[in-house]
């Protein structure tokens, strides 16, 4: 069967960044060491052009893969829209053939992973990933987030279905002294929860922070937000923006400093304990 450009990139494990009408990927020219992705691939046609070395062609031809006709693509998009509406109404279901994950992963205990519903599913597109149901406050599953279990697998994270609205995780957080600790990624939250900071909440990236989602936290009884984003430039910028949004909602806020290029998901138990003591005594 034919596949669209995104399905092909995922099948071939090619990392990508959406950029307008294109996907931006590392150049497929073997003679071009493209450390800063510069090959643009049209999202619909698969036509590709590297603006750095001039390499061009079609991604379907490059991987000797069957493409999809415009008519098939339109039909596919209609089906996806219908599925999106169904998911909005009743939510997703964990696949019957899935397997509950019973081990530890990335220094997070088996008990914590079990508590948050970690599972594996060996069908195409899901294999090789540790999957989590992402629920809203009603318990409905909005999406699945899949984390690659091998370091060489790209992209590291995938969201099913693509474009799904991502509520904060967990949707009904533990609240300590009226506050939560807001982090970027699901494994940041899981690591902190696992190590004793049980009020960690993941926003799924700095771009997923907005007034509406923060106001939902306020409705749940949150009065203050400790912001612990990644120790890189993007994390620091996102923390400042999030702090301003919290202030608009009259949520007490502070930005917790973290070392350069350190993620909360990397903090060992001792450091998490120190952080808890720093915040709550």
TrEMBL record:
InterPro entries xrefs: DNA_primase_Znf_CHC2 (IPR036977), DnaG_primase (IPR050219), TOPRIM_DnaG/twinkle (IPR034154), Znf_CHC2 (IPR002694)
Alphabetized Pfam families for the sequence: Toprim_2 (PF13155), Zn_ribbon_DnaG (PF01807)
MF term (GO), any: DNA binding
Biological source species: marine metagenome
GO cellular component: cytoplasm
GO biological process, one term: DNA replication, synthesis of primer
Keywords annotated in UniProt: Metal-binding, Zinc, Zinc-finger
Protein name stated in the entry: Zinc finger CHC2-type domain-containing protein
SUPFAM superfamilies: DNA primase core (SSF56731), Zinc beta-ribbon (SSF57783)
The Zinc finger CHC2-type domain, residue ranges: 3-62
